[in-house]
Amino acid sequence: MNVCLAPRPVVFDLDGTLIDSAPDIHAAVNAVLRENRIAPLTLDQVRSFVGGGVEMLWHKIIRATGIEPSRQQSLIASFMTRYHDATGLTRLYPGVLEALGMLADRGYPLGICTNKPLGPTRAVLDHFGLTGLFGTVVGGDSLPQKKPDPAPLRAAFVALGADPTQPQGIYVGDSEFDALCAANLPVPFLIYAHGYRRTPLAELPHAAQFSHFNELPLLVEGLQLA
């Protein structure tokens, strides 16, 4: 007798997973630095700082540039005026739209759990016409906690109908924050082999890895049946 399993929710990180947003973040950061007569940073530097949310981003920028730490909040405020709708340089990774459409067509509830603030998150989803695919969006300022604390990811799964005590879902991301968040919940983690990770992929806990989004639906199906 065949058993029909209800599709598990699949929740995604955003920056470095679905989108390459580092060029927009880099441009906004350097605009603030130039405004304050501070030498600009390279794209690679800024990309390596992405993942922990805006506060951590600017903590790392301040440490790298020698800015007085007491200026952090004013720099963040200036940054956010540029960042809240920065989409012009951001790109979807290849195959993202097709993979999301395929999963949605197969009945998987989809969500976002990111450390990116909710405003810029919604702006970029709207920009790419992705908003309607996601049943929930949890941003870096949606809760007091940020990844790798499991609370935001748990909230995303619960909003998609999962059991809050033992959510049967799948998380897809690219970074240390994502891998540890999934492990802390715990749920199976699929790791995108590109993105903004600094730790070698083999050193992070994950159920499987993929290098192109055309591989993702089959991996999700495999975990669904595991």
From TrEMBL:
Native organism taxonomy: Bacteria, Pseudomonadati, Pseudomonadota, Alphaproteobacteria, Rhodobacterales
Enzyme class: hydrolase
GO biological process: carbohydrate metabolic process; DNA repair; glycolate biosynthetic process
Keywords, ordered alphabetically: Carbohydrate metabolism, Hydrolase, Magnesium, Metal-binding
EC number per UniProt: 3.1.3.18
Binding site for Mg(2+): 13, 15, 174
Family: Belongs to the HAD-like hydrolase superfamily. CbbY/CbbZ/Gph/YieH family.
Catalytic reactions on record: 2-phosphoglycolate + H2O = glycolate + phosphate
Molecular-function annotations in GO: metal ion binding; phosphoglycolate phosphatase activity
Gene3D superfamilies for this protein: HAD superfamily/HAD-like (3.40.50.1000), Putative phosphatase, domain 2 (1.10.150.240)
Cofactor(s) for this UniProt protein: Mg(2+)
Function of the protein: Specifically catalyzes the dephosphorylation of 2-phosphoglycolate. Is involved in the dissimilation of the intracellular 2-phosphoglycolate formed during the DNA repair of 3'-phosphoglycolate ends, a major class of DNA lesions induced by oxidative stress.
Cited InterPro entries: HAD-like_hydrolase_sf, HAD-like_sf, HAD-SF_hydro_IA, HAD_2, HAD_sf, PGP-like_dom2, PGPase_prok
Top-rank lineage group of the source organism: Bacteria
Pathway: Organic acid metabolism; glycolate biosynthesis; glycolate from 2-phosphoglycolate: step 1/1
This protein's name: Phosphoglycolate phosphatase
Residues at the catalytic site: 13 (nucleophile)
UniProt key word S-adenosyl-L-methionine: no
Any one Gene Ontology cellular component term annotated for this protein: cytosol
